[in-house]
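Postdoc handover notes: sequence design on the structure in folder B. Input tokens:
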């Protein structure tokens, strides 16, 4: 078995690894038996409602932990992998699912950098290039989007100043999106990059007027809850690419995507021709 720790105290944790279930409780009185393989926290906000094992991207991590606890003399490589899973991968998984809106992306990246410091140097040498290569949330546009929603006024004022300076450039060419150099020694998420280079404003804020932008200094801005999860983005990129190869023009592409999404909602599963015929007869 393995233990799953979080900042939220657990009432009861039941993690079946073999044929039997082992329960742990923070109180001496045993509570009623919950459903098998369930995680019941005191705060439903921290843990997702679904079971820990149903998410396929946690399968490898769970198997590594299972292999570790069943190995009498684990190798150094296995110990490093387990240490990474427990100290970095699993905490970041819960952090991202708890803070899943687009304005939290830079903060999630900063937490990943902070958790990385607790790992051995040999592990950091492997993980740092990966974080740098995927450091899209360290871009100035993403950082400014997080800063305008920050609870501290000083951070919001700094964001308004950078956005105002970026608007004064009036660049005519398409802005290049280059992943910046991530500062792994940053103490706050606003220090993840150097602000001396070219700064561009977030696309979500380009329609804000000057008065609305100045008002951000008095109160945090509320942005649409666009998710930070990459799977939905990858599906959208594929759909847009398919639409570009099928039709020409913005309106035709938008209509192609809208029609496909509508058809998928109306007919989510089509197993065979018999199912299609049966559905047609029921509609008639």
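Designed sequence:
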């Amino acid at each position: 078995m393995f233990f799953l720790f979080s900042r939220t105290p657990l009432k009861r944790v039941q993690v079946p690894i073999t044929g039997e279930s082992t329960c742990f409780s923070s109180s001496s009185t045993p509570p009623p038996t919950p459903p098998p393989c369930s995680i019941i926290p005191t705060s439903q906000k921290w843990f997702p409602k679904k079971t820990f094992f149903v998410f396929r991207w946690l399968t490898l991590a769970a198997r590594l932990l299972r292999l570790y606890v069943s190995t009498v003399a684990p190798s150094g490589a296995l110990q490093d992998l387990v240490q990474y899973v427990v100290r970095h991968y699993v905490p970041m998984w819960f952090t991202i699912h708890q803070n899943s809106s687009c304005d939290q992306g830079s903060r999630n990246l900063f937490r990943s950098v902070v958790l990385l410091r607790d790992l051995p140097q040999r592990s950091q040498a492997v993980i740092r290039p990966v974080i740098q290569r995927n450091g899209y949330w360290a871009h100035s546009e993403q950082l400014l989007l997080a800063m305008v929603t920050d609870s501290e006024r000083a951070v919001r004022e700094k964001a308004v100043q950078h956005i105002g300076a970026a608007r004064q450039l009036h660049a005519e060419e398409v802005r290049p999106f280059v992943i910046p150099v991530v500062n792994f020694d940053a103490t706050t998420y606003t220090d993840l990059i150097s602000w001396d280079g070219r700064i561009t404003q977030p696309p979500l804020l380009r329609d804000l007027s000057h008065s609305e932008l100045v008002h951000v200094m008095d109160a945090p801005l509320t942005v649409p809850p666009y998710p930070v999860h990459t799977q939905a983005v990858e599906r959208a990129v594929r759909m847009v690419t398919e639409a570009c190869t099928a039709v020409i023009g913005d309106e035709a592409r938008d209509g192609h995507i809208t029609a496909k999404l509508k058809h998928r909602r109306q007919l989510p599963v089509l197993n065979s021709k018999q199912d299609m015929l049966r559905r047609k007869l029921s509609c008639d």
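Context for whoever picks this up: The longest strand covers residues 10-14. Don't rerun without checking with the PI first.
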